[in-house]
Amino acid sequence: MSDGPDNQRDIYNVTRLNREVRAVLEGSFPFIWLQGEISNFACPASGHMYLSLKDVHSQVRCAMFKGKNRFLKFEPENGAEVLVRANVSLYEGRGEFQLIIEQMELAGEGGLQRAYEELKQNLFKEGLFEEDHKKPVPAMPGTIGVITSPTGAAIRDIMSILKRRYPAGNIIVYPVPVQGDGAAEQITTMLKTAEKRNECDVIILSRGGGSIEDLWAFNNETLARTIFDCSLPVVSGIGHEIDFTIADFVADQRAATPSAAAELVSPDQMHIKQTVSLQQNRLIQFLQANLSTHRQNISHLEKRLPHPATQLQNNAQRLDAISIRMNHSIQSTVTQQNHRLHEQHSTLNKYNPLHRLQFYLERSEQIHQRLRQAANHHYQNLNAQIQTVARALNAVSPLATLNRGYAIVQKYDNQEIIRNAEQLDPGDEVLTRFSQGQAKCTVNEVSFEDVKDK
Question: Which domains does the chain have, with CATH numbers?
Answer without folding.
Answer: 14-113 (2.40.50.140), 142-265 (3.40.50.2300), 402-445 (no CATH)
